Amino acid sequence: MIYLHQAAAAKKDDPSDMEIRFPGGMQVDALHEGFRIRTDQPVAQGGSGSAPSPFDLFLVSIGTCAGFYALRFCQERSLDVDGLALSVTPEREGKRVACVRIAVRLPLSFPDKYREAILRAVDQCSVKRHLAEPPRIEVVTVPDEEGSLRLPTSPPSIAPEVPPAG
């Protein structure tokens, strides 16, 4: 297991590493496995609206992950995917998303015997499963690459050190 505060100490070619950059305005880009994933804020929130917001990408990751599981389910059974689609609808309570509804639209030719099974397959989405059992997220500061800070090899303790009695 690699903690976020250990990420800088991980090998530079680790495929799970991401580099976050700030190209200008409210834009924030992630560089990951040769891809540049662009984000921006909506115009109403001070951005230029040139790309999805990070929260939009969060919802997109749920939908595309669920879609992958639906697609694989059909492909493994040689089922026609023409007309297969998913929609993702965030249901809000105030500003917070309280529920993410994934609706699977099945083709007219989809066999009845697989209707429940495809829902179980979509339910296996790894993004959804990580939300059900969320990872710990740690945020730390590190010097630039020319700095000489040695990162800890285990999570930092938040409990104060107590001197031995004596």
Overview of this structure, please?
- This protein is of the alpha+beta class and 166 residues long.
- The protein has two domains: 1-51, no CATH class; 53-134, K homology (KH) domain (GMP Synthetase, Chain A, domain 3), CATH 3.30.300.
- The chain contains three helices and five strands; from the N terminus they run βββαββαα.
- Strand 2 and strand 3 form a beta hairpin.
- The longest helix is centred in the middle third of the chain and has 23 residues, at 54-76.
- It is elongated, with a radius of gyration of 21 Å.
- The model is unreliable at 1-11 and 148-164 (pLDDT under 50).
What structural class is derived from the secondary structure elements? alpha+beta
Strand content: 15-25%
Give the C-level CATH assignment of the largest domain: Alpha Beta
Instruction: Give the low-confidence spans.
Output: 1-11, 148-164
Tally the structural domains.
2
What labels describe this entry?
166 residues, alpha+beta, GMP Synthetase, Chain A, domain 3, 2 domains, two-stranded antiparallel ribbon, 5 strands
